Every structure is written in structure tokens, then in C-alpha cells.
Amino acid sequence: MRACSLRAVWILGDDGSVLISRRFPTVERRWHRSFSANSNASGLPAACVGLPCDRILSQLYLKHTPVEKACYSALGRHVLCLSLTTETIVWPLVVLSKGALRVLVLPLVQPSQLLAQLNQDANNAGDLTSLSLAVAELTCVTQAVDVAEAILGLCTVTGGSATLSTGDCEKVREYIAGAMPFGTPLDTSAATTLAVRSKGFGTGDVATREQQPAWKPHLFQGRTKLHFVVREELQCWFHQELTPVAFSLAGCLDCR
């Protein structure tokens, strides 16, 4: 099973000011490829849109009116669906609060998962703003909640201030860089991630024959081993009198 990934993370003040914004272009490209391949799927809304800029996202969040339903789970109340237009949405947006701070996390959802949610909520006559039913069944949503809780744990709230200190901003950026490279969370424990980043691995660790867990590398007690494989592909068109020279370079980096 492919690991859960995040499209973007924001920290907002209660006045809508954007304190921290982090987008993951690698995950966003996967999102567009996935929805483009399923663009003809019956019942799929025009949700394949680029992420709105920070200013527009802040405005949409401030204008959002919570939909209260008795059948919502405790987790479902923290998942929003923001409508850009009548047919385009930003969903599922996980929102957790601490004082005057709001952490917004947008996980990657596959088209099949979105269609399943629409079919479950078919009684709402196509109302795209009420897609938070049964979201606890989506692994990406529960992991986004873990990430949001970890980020809130790094933030110090004093009174009603909707600002972050320089130290808190640095901690959050270090956590995002270390815990979710390229948008895929490896370990949502902020304490473990920051400790490894500041202290590194112990020199007395004894190498073992066990494979390093790909999903929790920071908890592996053996000697760290990384294997890189770089693959490049060059396509070119030349030596044609009537055709201009053209070339493209593509590649990928595999790490384990």
C-alpha cells in the first residue's frame, strides 16, 4: 500500500493571517496525474484544480460556515470542504486549533476514495460541502490529524496572540523538513524527529541484519544505511534540416 502523502500544510491566525505555508509539488503532480486519468469518471466533481494561493485559502477558510450534523464523528467535525466554485472543492482539509492558531493539513485523496465518499453521501443531492461523513475510514485523514497535532505541540500560545515566535517557526520548519520529506510523513512524532535532527544517531550503534523500516527510519537502532540509485533519460531530436533541435531530460532518484 502506498504511504499517505500531504499536498500542503498551513498555519493561520484566527484573523486569517498566514504564518507558515508549505506545499509539496511532488505530491501535487501525483494529484493532477491521478485526477486527469479519471477525469471521465461518472459523478466525479471538478476537484482537480491547483491549490489556491495563501490569500484565497485564508479568505475561504474565514468565510466557511461549519455544517453541523448529528451523524458526524468527532473526527469529522475537524474536516472541512472548501468550495472554490459551485463544482470545484478543496477536500479533505483537516483543521485543528490551539488558542488563536489554526493548523490546516490537506492530504492526498485518490479519485476512488472521493467517489466512495460521494456515493455514501448521495442523500445530500450533490452537496459538496458535506463530504466529512465517515472520514475516519480514510488513513490519509487520520495521519493528517497526527501531523496537525504534532505541529500544534511545537507552538507556544501566549494569551490571544495569533503569532509565532522565531523559535517556534524554526521548530515547525525543521519538523516538516525532517518528518515528511517530499510530502510523505515518515514519523509523526515531533520529539523523535527533532532529537534525531539535533543529535544524530549514536556512534555506538551496532549494525544488525534486520532491514531498516521504511516507514519509521528514526526508530531504527542499527547503523544507518542509505542506497541511492539515479536514473536519467535523455530524449532529443536533431540533424533534421526542417526541424529545430529539441531535447528533454527526465529522471528519478530512488532511495532506500
UniProtKB/TrEMBL annotation:
Major place of residence: membrane
Keywords associated with the record: Membrane, Protein transport, Transport
Gene Ontology CC terms: AP-type membrane coat adaptor complex; cytosol; late endosome; lysosome
Membrane topology qualifier: Peripheral membrane protein
Superkingdom in the source lineage: Eukaryota
UniProt-annotated location(s): Endomembrane system
Keyword Transferase: no
GO BP: endosomal transport; protein transport
InterPro entries: AP5M1
UniProt record similarity statement: Belongs to the adaptor complexes medium subunit family.
Name this polypeptide is given: Uncharacterized protein
Source organism: Cymbomonas tetramitiformis
